[in-house]
């Protein structure tokens, strides 16, 4: 056992966060389904947000077999608000593989599953199967960079941080160690103003010894996100609004949404152009009237979207998957956050 784990595991025994997908410290490993589901949900999303989604998902689909048998549209709607919707599509695809073939119990096997990258595979291997795996998320990167006072900036230093994390990973209680590192990063070794006085690793910490622990990890200067624009149309008829199913692949793929000009950038750095992503160019009767704009931050760009009210030309043919959705039930449509914001503007501003 490493000196770090000797100090960290007793701290974890006393301070572990109680989370719905976890087993208490030292207890047998939790159900791999719950570990996998929570780790997919936690990619890019906070613990506080995930808790409620996790409870709802496991109440509705308590086993991987139940999730495998679910309608993909129902899962996408239940996922609405968690963002990064390719995760929900991969979730269903992966559940179907797992229900048919069972859980691979090692990191290499887990890595081959839909939506399971190196971090998630390591986390499941350690937490659900007790295997020695080096589990490095953003919290752990920060702890390791501080512990070893690594001066090379992120993101280039990531492989070095993983190598350093490997040197402190123990051979036993691997799942608890992984979760202890995550918890230390989330509750004590926090991004700003780390609480070093409460930290079990303080005496061994290079960043603490430097006198300015909050300055680690070092970061390369960030490039500004490109700006893009798009228009979403609010098209109403007899108490209903027109929703379209976005193409399966691409930005917000497979989700119900307002018709819009929103598409993914063609290539990194490509000029932003308005491209109709739904293979459908609505023919309008009369002018479009702007109701307002919203902004939304995606991973690779910042979007300003105009919400415009419009009427369809009577001869306009709707695209496959289009639906007239009752305004009174709009909250049940599972719109992704961007379009939920656009709908809120339209509901507030339309006359
Ligand atoms: S001593 Fe401070 S900087 Fe070092 S690991 Fe602990 S909380 Fe983080």
Instruction: Name the bound molecules.
Output: iron/sulfur cluster
CATH-defined superfamily of the largest domain: Hypothetical protein, domain 2
CATH class of the largest domain: Mainly Alpha
Radius of gyration: 23 Å
Average pLDDT reading: 91
Q: Characterize the overall form.
A: globular
The assigned CATH architecture of the largest domain is: Orthogonal Bundle
Number of strand elements: 7
Strand content: 5-15%
pLDDT < 50 stretches: 266-277
Written description of the protein model:
With 351 residues, the chain is an alpha+beta fold. It folds into two domains: 3-215, Hypothetical protein, domain 2 (Endonuclease III, domain 1, Orthogonal Bundle); 227-349, Alpha-Beta Complex (Nucleoside Triphosphate Pyrophosphohydrolase). 39% of the residues lie in helices and 13% in strands. The strands form two sheets. Strands 2, 3, 4 and 7 form a four-stranded antiparallel sheet that branches. Strands 1-6-5 form a three-stranded mixed sheet, with helices on one face. A hairpin with a 2-residue loop joins β2 (236-237) and β3. The longest helix is centred in the first third of the chain and has 16 residues, at 86-101. The protein is globular. Residues 266-277 have low confidence and may be disordered. The site of iron/sulfur cluster has 14 residues, from α9 and α12.
């Amino acid at each position: 056992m490493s000196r770090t784990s000797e100090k960290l595991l007793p701290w974890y025994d006393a301070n572990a966060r109680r989370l719905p997908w976890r087993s208490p410290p030292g207890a047998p490993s939790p159900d791999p389904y719950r570990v996998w589901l929570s780790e997919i949900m936690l990619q890019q999303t906070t613990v506080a947000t995930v808790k409620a989604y996790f409870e709802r998902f496991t109440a509705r689909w308590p086993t991987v077999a139940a999730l495998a048998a679910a309608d993909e549209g129902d899962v996408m709607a239940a996922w609405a608000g968690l963002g990064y919707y390719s995760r929900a599509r991969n979730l269903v695809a992966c559940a179907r593989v797992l229900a048919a073939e069972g859980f691979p119990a090692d990191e290499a096997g887990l890595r081959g599953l839909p939506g399971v990258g190196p971090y998630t595979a390591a986390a499941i291997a350690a937490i659900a199967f007790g295997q020695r795996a080096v589990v490095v998320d953003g919290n752990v990167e920060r702890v390791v960079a501080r512990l070893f006072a690594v001066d090379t900036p992120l993101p280039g230093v990531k492989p070095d941080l993983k190598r350093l994390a490997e040197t402190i990973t123990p051979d036993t209680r691997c799942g608890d160690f992984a979760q202890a590192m995550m918890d230390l990063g989330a509750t004590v070794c926090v991004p700003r103003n780390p609480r070093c006085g409460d930290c079990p690793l303080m005496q061994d910490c290079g960043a603490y010894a430097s006198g300015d622990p909050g300055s680690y990890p070092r970061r390369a200067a960030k490039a500004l996100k490109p700006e893009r624009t798009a228009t979403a149309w609010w098209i109403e008829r007899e108490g209903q609004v027109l929703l379209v199913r976005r193409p399966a692949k691409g930005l917000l793929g497979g989700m119900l949404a307002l018709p819009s000009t929103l598409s993914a950038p063609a290539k990194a750095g490509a000029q932003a152009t308005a491209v109709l992503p739904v293979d459908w160019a609505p023919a309008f009767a009369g002018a479009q009237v702007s109701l307002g704009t919203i902004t939304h931050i995606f991973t690779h760009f910042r979007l300003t979207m105009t919400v415009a009210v419009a009427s369809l030309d009577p001869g306009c043919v709707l695209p496959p998957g289009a639906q007239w959705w009752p305004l009174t039930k709009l909250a049940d449509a599972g719109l992704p956050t961007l379009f939920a914001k656009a709908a809120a503007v339209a509901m507030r501003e339309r006359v």
